[in-house]
Amino acid sequence: MSEQAARAVVVAYFDAFNAGDAKAMLALVSEDVEHHVNQGAVRRGWDAFAAFCAHMGVSYREELRDMVIFVNEDGTRAAAEFVVHGEYLQTDPGLPEARGQRYVLPAGSFFTLRDGKIARVATHYNLQDWIAQVSA
To answer: Is the separation of the CB atoms in 71 and 3 below 8 Å?
Structure first.
């Protein structure tokens, strides 16, 4: 995949995320996608990623801003840095109670791209910072 094509896939993924369009996000990931979450086990496969998207859609409302995307020359890897502006809507098990708290959190994602799709996404943020913000 070219660098330009890879960038277009990553941009489309984040555009879909910001639009709350899980269906469009799912169309951009491979059947065997690996989703490396900040805290917890790796989710493997399209179905696991779809379940994650469904959960996120009811628990959080988030918009990613100040996006900077980096792509390697052969279009096989990408990274993005951004700021998450969110609202905590429904309590996530093991986390503080949701009361519609708002938060702003720097974060980043790393991608492996294969055959025009996202084959791996790893997202990282400071969970303790998020907990402090929603607990205040």
So the answer is: yes
Query: Which pLDDT score, from 0 to 100, does residue 2 have?
Result: 94
CA distances from 86 to 31, 33, 72, 95, 100 (A): 28, 25, 29, 15, 9
| Domain boundaries 3-135, CATH class | alpha beta
Longest dimension (CA), the chain: 45
31-53 pLDDT, tens digit each: 999 999 887 889 999 999 999 99
- Asked if 13 and 22 touch (Cβ cutoff 8 Å), the reply is no
Other CB atoms within 10 A of residue 119 CB: 16
In which residue are the tokens 């205040």 written? 136
Contact by Cβ (8 Å): 28, 46: no
> What are the CA-CA distances from residue 120 to residues 24, 25, 77 (Å)?
16, 13, 9
